[in-house]
Amino acid sequence: MSSENAVNQAEAQSGKQTAGGYLASTVKHGGIYALGTLLAKGVGFIMLPVYTRVLTTADYGILEILSLSTDILGMLVGLGVRQAVMRYYYQYDNDQDRNGVISTASLLLLLTFGLTAFVGLAFSVQLTDLLLGPDQPNHYVQLAVIAFALGALGDIPGVYLQARQQSKIFVAASTARLILALSLNIVLVVFLHLGVVGIFMSTIISSIVIGGYMIWQMLCQTGIRFVNARARELILFGAPLMVWQVGSFVLHFSDRYFLRYERTLSDVGLYALAYKLAMLLGTFIIGPFRDIWIAKSLEIARREGPAGNPILASIMRHYNMVLVGVGLGIALFSTDVIHLMLGAQFAAASETVPLLVVAVVFFGYRQISQTGAMIAGRSGLIAWSTTIAAGGAVILNMLLIPPYGAMGAAIATAGAFLLEFLVMRRFSLHVHPVTVPLHVLAQPILLAAMVWTGAALVVPEGAHPLLGLGIRIAAGLAFLVGALVTGIITTEERGALAHIIRDPRSLLVTLRKA
User: Fold this and answer.
1) What global pTM score does this model have?
2) Which of 27, 315, 359, 483 is buried most deeply by CB count within 10 Å?
């Protein structure tokens, strides 16, 4: 941790940075998080055929239900502390107060997760009957509860590394945990045929080994102190975020239940597949940006003051261009991916992908709209915006899914995330004046919509797949040309791109220094 921390300290002592320096730093750390995500998802994809040969569909059902249940439980007992840590770490300038935030949060989470595990183990029989049915053994729930509690060992150290913008160490620790869990899965599930038990055992062991080491290292640096004042700050800021997390669950998953009631399981499966394709945008763009953006935006606000607002807006605008550009790529080529990898029986899933990509773009605008509220410490506004949007999602699902099925679900999801963005943007502007004008955000979206529509109209019905692929590639290039011609990419940015094309090493040098 020392070398990267020294860089951060040197930057803090050097005074104000340029907007380009902050942008390069954001790109650098976001890119490292994206590489870590790519590695994890790649390994999971490679291992999928192996797991399907040793796990039954019932095993997958048990894992899905218990995973979903512990996710919801984590939202409730986590008290929003993870997000609060990031907020209050940058509230203070001296190491003593910052270390007090980290150590207090760690002890708080270990206590709440430990008590939850105790209750879960005591009532494991009842929980098994409720979640899995009376014919299932209760040791599945017991193992899931233990794995859930031990997951807290790595949570706060992970947030600590993100707050300190030590992305390399964060990804290295995550990769080590992934490799250990994967190795144990191969031994316990593939060779010893322990099934669901083996999956949970590998999670428990890797949490103890890697998570235990991470929290020990962290507490050696921060010390072990429970500061009552810091605990009150964390809970008061984090508690409304529990509502936000539950609302997010409704936004993402309520449409499945409505679709199941109004249609068939096959419709749900096709829609879920389309949603996963669209959420590739969330996995590889939104997620890595979120991992660095909270820390980076709070750093800029603290170090630059009001002068940081244009810097924040500039980074948001660049993020929007990347978000929309990659989203267009997913919308254009999802049909080819589905046909090549999944077969004709899943072809109908491609119909809803473009609309779901729009929904995920609006979901990605959370990072833009919540910035002001995070800087101002107004977590309640974040909770309110998501609660309003969750209510909107339920109403739209009720209105649109019965007549339009999966397409109605996609429209409802896009509408709900757009509502959340607009409400949160309005709230944030009242407490901290930083945002990107709506027309600036809309420009690349409108261009992407025109390009996608043109490609869809040009490809003739029943066209050869290679012809369709060629047209879609041309459409992607047309988006880039259109962004250059219309000024979405500014003259200064065109000059920077031309310089990078002439001298690619200059980009690496810039990122290395960031």
Assistant:
1) 0.78
2) 359
